[in-house]
Amino acid sequence: MVSGRTFPEAAARATRDARLRANLAHATGTIRAKRARAVAELSDWARLRAAGAAIKDRTLARLDHYLERAEAAVIAAGGTVHWAADAAEANAIVTGLVAATGEREVVKVKSMATQEIGLNEALARAGITAYETDLAELIVQLGDDLPSHILVPAIHRNRGEIRDIFREKMGSWGRAAPEGLGDEPAELAEAARLHLREKFLTAKVGISGANFLVAETGTAVVVESEGNGRMCLTLPETLISVVGIEKLVPTWRDLEVFLQLLPRSSTAERMNPYTSMWTGTAGGDDGPRAFHLVLLDNGRSDALADPVGRPALRCIRCSACLNVCPVYERAGGHAYGAPYPGPIGAILTPQLRGTAGALEASLPFASSLCGACYEVCPVAIDIPRVLIHLRERVAAGGEATREGARTRIRPARGHAAERAAMRAAGWVLDRPGVLRAGQRLAGRTRRLHPRRLPGWLPGPGAAWAQSRDLPEVPAESFRDWWRRAREEKSR
């Protein structure tokens, strides 16, 4: 899903799309207001949030133990567990499992993990067609589009656009849209229901992700609002679930906390209309006869090893941070160039992929650091702190290279000026006398300072000059004011 552009390049194009900005502003504003009302109903929301963060941290601290426990429980329940180190291995496993059934079509539950690894494309290369069954994912697939939101992948589309997509494309994927289809939500939903029912009744293989995986019993959990996921999880004969290793919770009691946090943070509901749970296979004709769990790493171990970046693995994919982010609301999800958009994507993608690439190196800067994302996060991920940490990593250097027995960071191109400026600032701040002299000089010459930076500044200075006014320098520094005030008080 990489766009080939850095975030600033993609965002510059997106912000010029008036219709996109209107769609995003309307949708995120509506979701944001509903979530605030839903959260306000609970007097213990802060305690729930703290509990969710603590459970996740405890799980991540002993992730190896809980993974082994989950594996044993799944096998005991009749399932098969596969371990995938990266996207290529996960795609090979799933493709092989589907091919072994002899089927050429599969139905899919909405899954961020399968988007992350590009599973649909991998299946297509093997001659297998994957049908998305989530309504928003269906819209994206029919429109030959890309998701732009974690919860509402087609948030960048309005009703008229969706109607046109259904009319033009639905017939080439299966049952065509009804004649004279309008843009009323009920009509669009009914057209999708009729189209998908054929897929549900004929598909022999279902593919899903999971919102949670309970280690003590090996139970996978999917929460949704439409019921399409439950059809995928129960009707096919073979079910394959691709689950990130960070999705574990130790016990059912821990799961209780997240089933309160997730719906209010994502859909602003007290509970999800459909909460589906499955543990291995039941035998007979009740549910899938074969269950395969693919545990996906794909960079998560690297994130786990970073004490500052590790909290990103707490994420429960609620999308609350997207809905309050002023950058996301203006640029949209496609500008992030990866399956995870918004503030969480700005810290998760660089950790999963590394910061050597131009896109990944630009994502930590796709934020105003206003902190709204941290305030609404149901598991208290301090996203601004991680962003600053990743910015430091990008500024310090690019990819790690091996030289004999030691590892060094190869400096990233394009950041020499920034590193020089930071070194100069560090030198001044380490010398109080120099800092004091500089402050006094700035105060005494403030009348000579320009209000705007000159437009001819090189490199990043040019961008600053185009969009910022220089702050007014006070006549007296805080240090001098404090000393004078104390002297006057003591007289």
Automatic annotation (TrEMBL):
UniProt KW keywords: 4Fe-4S, Electron transport, Iron, Iron-sulfur, Metal-binding, Repeat, Transport
Iron in keyword set: yes
SUPFAM superfamilies (UniProt xref): 4Fe-4S ferredoxins, NagB/RpiA/CoA transferase-like
Gene3D superfamilies: Alpha-helical ferredoxin, NagB/RpiA/CoA transferase-like
A Pfam short name: LutB_C
Keyword set includes Nucleus: no
Highest taxon of the lineage: Bacteria
Domain 4Fe-4S ferredoxin-type: 305-327
UniProt xrefs under PANTHER family: LACTATE UTILIZATION PROTEIN B
Record-given protein name: Lactate utilization protein B
Organism of provenance: Streptomyces boetiae
